[in-house]
Write a structure and sequence with these properties.
- The chain is an alpha+beta fold.
- It folds into 2 domains: 70 residues, no CATH class; 109 residues, no CATH class.
- 29% of the residues lie in helices and 26% in strands.
- It is globular and about 50 Å long.
- 31% of the residues are buried.
């Protein structure tokens, strides 16, 4: 798990640098270099990427808007990482991350699945927290209609219906939201070998 945590922390630092570059860097080639560095973390064959970027030519009003957004950014946080042993895909890691803007950086926003499918560790899947059920899977006492009770919405990449046996859990920081804190506390009941 140590390598996966280091991978995610490097990704978060490079992602933040690329986002800041999009907001503040005038040299488009430097922006593109930082975005490519972040996209290298993703298994692009799975159809996902960072989604970070900007057009080469922007009017000053748009650049000012980007600067205002950049002023509200913080590097995202890693809440928890859960390691699974999947029979067909090998060792998989699920990490739960914050949102990355001031005021939205203390709670779950995204979950990534990492794995090594032959090209080294890469991000395989992106999931967004379901805002309808706040990642509980329930809405008004029923199965959430938006996420199908998973608590997460698939944003791209490999679908992982069965992650396999849970083998290790790393907790780093708890979310502030009390509902998400309960989910955080319940994550990672390690099954006996």
């Amino acid at each position: 798990m140590e390598n996966a945590v280091a991978f995610v922390n490097a990704f978060l630092a490079d992602e933040f640098a690329a986002q800041k570059s999009v907001s503040f860097e005038r040299n488009y080639d430097l922006v593109t270099d930082k975005v490519r560095k972040v996209d290298a973390y993703f298994r692009l064959a799975s159809g996902i990427s960072s989604g970070i970027g900007r057009p080469k030519f922007l009017p000053e009003t748009m650049l000012n808007r980007l600067r205002n957004q950049g002023d509200r950014m913080e590097q995202r946080r890693l809440f928890v990482m859960v390691q699974h042993e999947q029979p067909d895909m090998g060792r998989l890691f699920r990490c739960v991350l914050s949102g990355g803007t001031i005021g939205a950086n203390d709670n779950f926003a995204e979950s990534l699945w990492l794995g090594n499918l032959g090209d080294g560790l890469q991000i395989l899947t992106r999931l967004a927290v379901c805002v309808t059920c706040n990642s509980t899977g329930l809405h008004r006492g029923e199965k959430c209609p938006d996420c199908g009770a998973s608590g997460w919405l698939h944003r791209g990449g490999v679908r992982i219906p069965d992650p396999g046996r849970l083998s290790e859990v790393g907790r780093f920081i708890a979310p502030v939201d009390p509902v998400q804190k309960e989910i955080y506390d319940a994550m990672g009941e390690v099954a006996p070998s």
